[in-house]
Amino acid sequence: MRIKTTIVIGVLCMAPLCQAQQPSSAEQYSHIWNSPTAMLLSQKWNWIDDRWVGDDTLYRTFRDKTDQQAARRKITAAAIEQYFHASASHPQNSQSLFRWAYAAYASKQEHLAPHVPYPYAWIFNCVPSPHTYNYDRIRFLISAGEQADPHMKDMARRLFKRDPKDYDVEYQLVGCLEPTRSHQERKEAFTYAEDLTHRYPTRANVYSLLGGVYLKLFVAYSDKEDAEKATNAYNRYLQLAPPNAVWRETAERTIQVLQNYHYK
Known about the structure:
The chain has 264 residues and is mostly helical. It folds into 2 domains: 1-16 and 164-264, no CATH class; 33-147, no CATH class. It has 13 helices and no strands. The protein has helices at 2-14, 27-30, 37-42, 57-71, 77-89, 94-109, 133-146, 153-162, 167-176, 183-199, 204-221, 224-240, 248-260. α8 (153-162) runs antiparallel to α9. The longest helix has 18 residues, at 204-221. The chain is globular.
């Protein structure tokens, strides 16, 4: 039981993309985006079936501009603070929330501006949706970054179908899938995870993601082959990850547990 518990912790800890440091408490935002808890809970998943019928032009334009700035490492903490304050001043404005959310997310992915305000997923429940692809994309990425929940896999599939080259969406889609639920979902998880290792062979995170799929299967079925493949994937992650990588220690611990497990 202790070994299984340790492995489950590894599954939870290994998969995410670079996540933002969340504020210590949601309370500092609650007075701005003030909605009753019951309403937030009732709206938790209502967006996953959203239809993209709104005008996406402004959202796409800002995304392209921000992606270019991120590539040049030009996103600043001051700019993100400005977007945050604009959103806080207009808490019902979806464009203001999008600018803050997307700039903060892009910055974190490139390790550009640590310690900036970062939106919680629940804030999106408090703002009217514009029903556009790019708005739901960043909402999904931030929500999955907090917790890759199976409820979001259909939204993830739609987003990925829209853009099959979208690394961020494909990565988080794998985390939302349940490979132990069915043969089809297991096949789907491996298809996407292995596609990422083929397209991005020098990115450490894609190997931790692949290892996580094998690890989930091992936790469910205790198959030695799954443990060996998870170990191989995590070893590849360790080879590519920098010395100060967030998940390095967890990967090393998980490998040790898998190697010491007594198979039947």
